[in-house]
Amino acid sequence: MQTHIFDVIVVGAGGAGLMAALYASKTASTAVISKLYPTRSHTGAAQGGVGAALGNLEEDYPEWHTFDTVKGSDYLGDQDAIEFMCQEAVDAVYELEHYGLPFSRTPEGKIDQRPFGGHTNNVTGKPVRRACFAADRTGHMILQTLYQQCIKNHVNFYDEFQVIDLLIVNGAAAGVVALELSTSELHVFHAKSVVFATGGHGRIWEVTSNAYAYSGDGASVALRRGLPLEDMEFFQFHPTGIYKLGILITEGVRGEGGILFNDKGERFMEKYAPKVKDLASRDVVSRAMYTEMREGRGIGGKNFFYLDVRPEVVNRYAALDGRKRPDGSPYIVTADEIISKLPDIADFCRVYLGVDPVTQPMPVQPTAHYTMGGIPTNKYGEVVIDDQNTVLPGFYAAGEVACVSVHGANRLGTNSLLDLITFGKHAGLRAAEFSRGATLQPLPKDAADFALAQLNQLKNSAGSERVADISREMKSVMFDHVGIFRTADGMKTALEKVRELRQRHQHIKITDQGKVFNTDLINAWELGNLLQLAELITVCAINRTESRGAHARDDYPKRDDANWMKHTLAWEKDGNIRLGYKPVAITKYQPKERVY
Ligand SMILES: Cc1cc2nc3c(=O)[nH]c(=O)nc-3n(C[C@H](O)[C@H](O)[C@H](O)COP(=O)(O)OP(=O)(O)OC[C@H]3O[C@@H](n4cnc5c(N)ncnc54)[C@H](O)[C@@H]3O)c2cc1C
């Protein structure tokens, strides 16, 4: 078995991992381990933009961004961390610009900005242009730009290595164990600091915008090593996935003036969010769509709606809303303009739906999208392991796998890319700083045994269960019962099913016994992670007897600040889940009812 030694190991090569590696590598020997080739990470799929109150097109301030994020989080976000992120946002975006990121521009050459859900002018309550974008390929550009910078900075890359285990020695992180996918050889990476930036777990649900790689590996590995996960009941459904496929249609479409219609041709969001309408926060829009569906107003009685960005429709509603260009002229768009701002969306629609969005409306439905919960950290990316925020020395997490918590119960659009670049940076800086003062923890001889045992258990099981069957059953029951609307009965049904599936997973049949890219084995291991997290999510969701942000319960329809203004922490030990709580950090904004 090969052992590699570095000061800092970063697991994950998405926006968060690359930003951490870039900053760590300025002062420490740094390696990035990624199961995917770096630029295939899900960050590359992000379309709409990165939020920062640059105020390039109209008045805007970091304070407004802070308040919108607190409100969007349904007051569960930690306000100290949110303030920090929104203040850092402006410089972070200019930093990306200086690295060479090709942002879309205004005619004067400034970074262009578009409106996004939940981002408002705090005085008028109207949508504000805060999302900085590179057409509808913002994440792709971030990923390419950061990858180039990492190469320039001599970061070491181990591509197509799957991390199976985290090593903790003497109460501190000491490295990871990874499987080299092309050979099935196990490698030990011995380090003074470890940063997890492994993304989310949206593949738990049937209809999802998430990449196949979103199997919750980082969260699951940490959980198996006895660490808690925070706020796992909160998972975001994005209102506009392509019907049945789940592929995302960015909120930027509504930012450019697109409107949602029901079967009666009504712009139904007017009813649910009179001020910002189609640009309400995602939890609000997704719930409105479900309510419309239940009341029979989905298109043709089915579970979808039309998202309409045809220029004549955009212009008609922009006039009704009194929307203006920054120079005060009426907001009027042409088909060419729409295509130039949303080229990939236009392509997706033509390829997957045979629909041309400038002449036809797009059929959309809510799609599982974003993991708000995750490995608990403070605002410097340091992993914390209890209600006292005790730091686990040498262990850091950033990006979608982490819960800082800046997104609380519901993330605002564009705040994830921002989260990656701010907390990725600070996690990298802290990891490097820690490694300077630390000595390598001695590794035990059996360091790789736990990883090996997990893989052997799957390989050698004599069962006949198939990954595809278990996976399908999990996705379906989670989508039906632990989705946008939840009830105790439904969730209990899901919990029983997921527990049964976890048992069946012990008897999985691996047909490929080869060593070269054994995806059969890896898929089975990843499915184990998804099942473990699905159970934990369901237990946390049953436990939280209120509705807040993305967690909406029919049996407890109100937010209950008296009892539930707190974060959930969840541990799993010997198959038993234990829950605890942690207070929410409140600085300036006392909880209020959310009105959009
Ligand atoms: C379709 C789509 C559009 C989006 N649009 C926007 C947007 O416009 N604005 C916005 O703010 N947010 C957007 N988001 C959310 C945002 O893009 C993601 O939350 C964010 O990119 C996640 O970045 P990350 O660095 O945490 O993870 P990722 O970019 O997913 O990277 C995870 C990395 O971890 C690695 N990894 C995972 N498991 C292992 C393992 N076991 N071993 C080794 N490596 C591992 C992977 O190889 C990968 O490199 C969008 C999300 C989706 C799905």
Characterize the structure shown.
With 596 residues, the protein is an alpha/beta fold. It folds into three domains: 2-235 and 369-437, FAD/NAD(P)-binding domain; 241-366, Flavocytochrome C3, Chain A, domain 1 (Alpha-Beta Complex), CATH 3.90.700.10; 449-578, Up-down Bundle (Methane Monooxygenase Hydroxylase, Chain G, domain 1). Helix content is 36%, strand content 21%. The protein contains 17 helices and 22 strands. Strands 1, 2, 6, 7, 8, 9, 16 and 17 form an eight-stranded mixed sheet that branches. It has a four-stranded antiparallel sheet with strand order 11-14-13-12. A three-stranded antiparallel sheet has the order 3-5-4. The radius of gyration is 23 Å and the shape is globular. The N and C termini lie far apart (57 Å). Bound molecules: flavin-adenine dinucleotide (FAD). Flavin-adenine dinucleotide binds at residues 11-17, 33-36, 41-43, 45-50, 138-139, 162-163, 197-199, 209-210, 213, 217-218, 248, 250, 370, 399-401, 413-417, 420. Residues 11-17, 33-36, 41-43, 45-50, 138-139, 162-163, 197-199, 209-210, 213, 217-218, 248, 250, 370, 399-401, 413-417, 420 line the site of flavin-adenine dinucleotide.
